[in-house]
Amino acid sequence: MKSALILGGTQFVGKRLVRLLIDEGVEVTVATRGLTPDAFGDQVSRLIINREDAESLEKAFKAKTWDVVFDQTCYSSQEALDTLTVLKGKVQKYIFTSSQAVYDFGTNHLEESFNPFGYQPVLKSRRDYIGYVGYQEAKRAAEAILFQNADLPVVAVRFPIIIGKDDYTNRLQFHVEHVKEGRPMFIEHPDFRYSFIESGEAASFLLSMAKSDYQGPVNPGSEEDISLGELMELIENLIGKKAIVSEDGDPSPYNLPGSWSVNRNLVESLGFRFSSLERLLKILILHYSKI
Q1: Where is the NAD-dependent epimerase/dehydratase domain (predicted)?
Q2: Same domain membership, residue 185 and residue 208
Q3: Residues 105 and 149 in one domain
């Protein structure tokens, strides 16, 4: 891989991925709306695009080619189709940042629990997808568009919840701060279980998928999953204070409609290992407790 196009690349995992590619000597082009500054200077090329405007893609990508595209910012079936169409003949592999949200709520999902070849996508814009159910449909439909129509290898990386010290969503930090400061929070279903992955490992995995011969969907992430109740107990033990859980408290950002966790047998068979979830959570909880 000598060149890569990143759709996104200025926040969180995308930013980490750009740095990894630069360090590998890859010629990197970052395509964004141009609203978020980055610190890469002249180490990358930059293009301005609007994912909801196919003409902006055509203009930006005209007469250009790359070995791999990393799609970090696709949130609709229409965007997937437009991007695939415009990039036809311009890239050799498509790495799509998908989500464990493609699965129905539940635990220990194998990749075959959702088959993008059997899903009938409806073309919609990102504004047509509302809430978690909408997000689920958007990622399912985008995968279906890519796998059913691409004439190049596609990898759908079905990330679980991504956490790290650079997590701008502050979802894990929310829980640590509420326990530390004695603020009440509302956890609707403490028994629901979720999978996680560290942001640096997520970026490294995307790079590895670009280098590998693998194509298809894949579930990366820490081997274990954890319930919200277990997470709160871990935070309590590390901080030394009891959580105040109340229906009148601030709603937990992890209050999802059901469990979402994935099986990692396939990714482990490919030779990948990820940090222990308990160890990762301990590091982050202690980090947030000092902020």
Answers
A1: 4-209
A2: no
A3: yes
